Input
Amino acid sequence: MLNGKNMNSKTNKILFIILIILISIGAIFLYYLYTKKSSGDISNSEISMDLPTSNGTNGGIDISSGDLPGVSIENDDSLTFADNQKKKLFQLSSQNVVDYWISSTTDLANSGDILKDNLYYINKDGEIHKILKGNSDEVIATSPYGPPVSINQSLDGSKVVVSFESGKVALYSIDKKTWELLTNNISSASISPDGKSVAYLTLVKGTKNLYIKDINRTKPITTLIISLAIQDVSIDWVDNDRIFLLPKQSKDFEGQIWYIDIKTKTLKFYGSGFGFSAIFSKLNNLSLSFSSQNYGKKMLTSFSDKSGNNKGSASFATFKEKCVFSYSTPFAYCAIPKNSNRTSSVYFPDDFLKKSIFFNDYIYKVDVENKVFYNLLSLDSMALDAISLKEKNNQLFFINRLDNKLYMYKIEE
Output
């Protein structure tokens, strides 16, 4: 006969075995969830980024009514509609692209047979490629300054400012095919819309100095515009009279955008917000701003003018890097995430900028003035994570983050 002590011992052993089984089952379940969510299958994981509400057509839709729920546009992706979109989508680059630009200043005779303007891109080795007929390309120049980071172009694309990983910043001229190294300690640079001047920030003893260099003269003249005690900013020369100061984007702090009136050399406030950023039209007084909401859980897109006067919120959420104003029309173009490869523990815009999350986008044409959008590209069968958009003459260019190739979508006129 068992005494009470032995019975308690046997009971404890049984409870211990049951506990081990339950822990094992839980571990297997968590492993299943993790592998499913981390599999990289963009088409199966929804993300809380709002799409504009669609009526299933390619017509204009009012998006001024606020934060509408995102919806899938499956009826737009019918066989006929999808095939028509695919026929207008072209991969242009043979290599991975760091950045690119559009130029309308040189002869188009040797350009790609589907292009209305000359198109150039730079790869990680600093080689500048020109797109040719048949969508092949040729190297026309090589940078002596190492791997590039980004390009800022003039409105006509005749000149570009290229920033490099080495910290050097250089001016490249298409017509002359020459490189010109700018001064040292440049933290950000932007070329004027007319291509006649370059603005750049230098850091000297904790102070940012904004200079403008007139590059249209035989002997260039450099002028100090303003000195500021600021950090982590970049510049964007939007129009002839205004240079914008853009903060580093993060959900963790409230960034402020200011602009410098070049004529009066005064500083004026545009707006602020967590993870704050904006894009500006070079043709009119319109802008789009982007901010992080709810501690990075979602993004908000807003309409405004270049002075920062708010014109209301859009019904879709996206990022600065996924929107652009046209170089030839008053419209903007935005890639709006439909779904992603992650659904939890995601913080915007930080995880997007770190490339720890990838999206599948739909692309829209946005009439910012009238708050109307048009569905351009909504293919569920192709994974497109579009950044660095540029549009000119009804041709929309972008880099696909999923393969780092350069694409063009032909917009119906």
About this structure: The chain has three helices and 29 strands. The chain has one domain: 38-410. The two ends are 94 Å apart (CA to CA).
